[in-house]
Specification:
Length: 261
């Protein structure tokens, strides 16, 4: 908990408003999506409650992105502690993931309030999709975070490579467009069905779709692939296996962290 608090305090050090920025930023972000994209650029055409649709997808993706970025840099950021005292090195990426979780809860609160104001929430039972969606992102964020935190100590370019990959991952998920648009485009250009399956079963795509179900009440069954929960469950099992593998790699590499730093 101390490391999580330290990580959060470092973000807003010397700021007058301090932690209020964790609330101000998502509120302004939501209003900009609603006004600029939804009203001025007319991106909302064909997507009811577009601001909620967009913000819900971005909220979950930002959580995943913050976990990966924070964990990747966590060992380097805490190089002084790593070299001076001995403690399980896993606590540093875990603390970064905890800080990302705090920011995610704040942004989710803004999303929930926005969905209530715009009367966009689905039935209460549908909102339970929140839990498998978040768990799926948490599992993959932990797996990637542990692996990349260790690799970044030995190859510092990892954090810059991840920056590009995460940008591509955002546009490769149905956040600013719908899954239905992807299926229609693939059919139009005769893309093989297996390509759509690969796209759909991407854990980020599955998590975003589940989060849409939790907060975007305007969605219909046609907006989601069949057997979404089963797909998420399979992806979750694979993610747990990856967590075990990532932790073993981390354990093997952490012995030389102090020397490399």
């Amino acid at each position: 908990m101390l490391l999580i608090r330290r990580d959060l305090q470092a973000r807003y050090r010397d700021s007058v408003l301090g932690f209020l920025w964790t609330l101000i930023r998502p509120i302004v972000q939501f209003l900009m999506y609603y006004l600029v994209l939804g009203q001025f650029l007319r991106a909302a055409e064909g997507v009811p409650q577009f601001a909620i649709y967009l913000f819900s997808g971005l909220t979950l993706y930002a959580f995943f992105s913050d976990m990966v970025f924070g964990a990747t840099a966590s060992i380097l950021t805490n190089a002084g502690l790593v070299k001076k005292i001995y403690l399980p090195r896993e606590v540093f990426p875990l603390a970064s993931i905890g800080a990302a979780g705090f920011m995610f809860l704040v942004q989710t609160t803004v999303l929930l309030i926005g969905a209530i104001v715009f009367q966009a929430l689905p039935a209460p039972a549908q909102m339970l999709w929140f839990f498998p969606s978040v768990l799926l992102m948490l599992v993959y964020g932990l797996a990637l975070g542990l692996l990349l935190a260790a690799l970044n100590v030995y190859l510092r370019d990892i954090q810059y490579i991840i920056d590009v990959v995460m940008m591509l991952a955002m546009w490769g998920s149905p956040i600013v467009y719908t899954w239905t648009m992807v299926t229609q485009t693939f059919e139009q250009f005769g893309v093989p069905d297996w390509v759509l399956e690969v796209y759909t079963n991407n854990p980020v795509t599955l998590g975003v779709l589940g989060f849409h179900k939790a907060f975007w009440g305007a969605g219909t069954p046609a907006d989601y692939p069949p057997d979404l929960l089963m797909r998420m469950g399979i992806a979750g099992v694979i993610g747990l296996v990856l967590v075990v593998i990532a932790h073993r790699v981390f354990s093997r590499l952490q012995g030389n962290f102090a020397q490399e730093l």
